Task: structure prediction
Amino acid sequence: MNNQLQYNAAIGLVVLSVFTSVAYGENNSQHESSLEPISEYRQEAQNKIKIFAGQLKGQLQQAIKAGGLTSAIDVCKIQAPLIANSLSIDGWQVARTSLKVRNEDNIADQWEQETLVKLADRKANGESFKQLTQEQLTTTDYRFMQAIGTAEICLACHGKNIDKNVLQHINQQYPNDQAVGFSKGDIRGAFTLSKRL
Result:
């Protein structure tokens, strides 16, 4: 894989996955309570996702210029959790998760697992990625998830035919990695946010 392809692939991993547009509404959300202001919480969640995306994109651009895809993998391991932690304030918890995680710290809980399955079913039934969000409001917390899609260039690190040097580095950093074998258009995971009320 040449340097330009590595650069395009790694940047695309974040840009196309992270900047999936979000659509909201009763048809795309799950409410366990009529408590308000749900629209305010939703907007906060959306803003935090955009900040997460922007900061991670910048870190990746610098890393790839310096060392290619393997450097990008290192950034994802070290910097992505730091960015998530910096946004986890004022009662919020910000993370990413998947049914096939790379980082074991991101293993989905029961609600996240169920939501990921529902999002996959909705996609299979024809909903676009911009519609693939889910929220839940109870008397104790608000939760929001937004699907992360798999674009063609994401396959460089998450597909079925990963460059052997890249795959070796992934396995060194994540011995129990599951986040491979995806195809273009799959739901690779989701942003998952919660706020204590």
